Amino acid sequence: MSDNFDSKEQNTNSNKKDSDVVISTRVRLARNLENTPFPQRLDKAGKASVIEKIRAVFNPDKFSFIDFSKLSEIERLSYVESHLSSPDFAQAADGMLIEAKNADSASGVKLSVMVNEEDHMRIQAIVPGFDIASAYEAAGKADDMISEKLTIAFDEKLGYLTACPTNLGCAFRISAMLHLPSLTMSGKINSLIDAIDKTGCLIRGIYGEGSEAWGMLYQISNRSSAGRSESEIITWFENIARRIIESERRERTSLIKHTQAATEDRIYRALGTAKFARRISSAELSDIYSCIRMGREIGLDNMCSYAEADKLITNLMPAHLALADREAERPSVRDSIRADKLRDVLNQS
Fold first, then answer.
1. Domain span holding position 327
2. pTM
């Protein structure tokens, strides 16, 4: 596509956290304990020692401590579906997730720490919409609290010492989950992906590194933190994200102008499936979700809110369904349960 994703592009004003395009924003900090091998080089006792040191920093009245070694596979997968665990962390099943019991009442930020993932700590703050500032503030406060009580591995030349060299320096990563139906439906998404890749951004599936794309959802993040400060990465990333947001909005306007009947027909056909089908697969859910969201974006009546729509891509995924109803562990039954629950949500909107 013709858009030039130059990081010098000036920011535009945010529109209610840009929730028409951005599902969520995440800030992640990688930290390791001084004079302690990285998790992949620790034995069971060494990993347990790291967990206990980090756990002691957090107030049990405000945080929950989830021992992944004691969870079932389905329970671990539910944390991946909630974007609180990476797929690798869930599969390893030997770490601990420290999770804030309550989201911040003002911003909606949810804070958590993966202990013994690739690094000793992956501090992560996730917030609805496009809101780097709130996520950055929450992650920074947790980092300060940890650093007051534990000595963090740091080198004057290299910065924070991390298991992966791309995280050296400030060990800082921003990611945003984007819903890009207009660019996808118009066939311009591949050009966008090529343009993003040239900026140094990564574009990945909804569960992060190594995951596949799901429907019309895409996750972008900075590829490396080495050689740049946190503020430089924030400015650079925000400029690129805002160019993508505006590209999606322009394409949405163009679709409505030139193919309004076809676009509305696709949305209402998806809604018809959602309201009357008795079995809905995960793949079908992805298209229904995108159509519901796009219907709200273009102003169609009787569409559920962005927040309600976004709950669907967590609550109706396999592990969440199985935890709510063990019968959903069977794929054929799971698709029936998903259809019933989706119909209930839409009938209430």
1. 255-348
2. 0.90
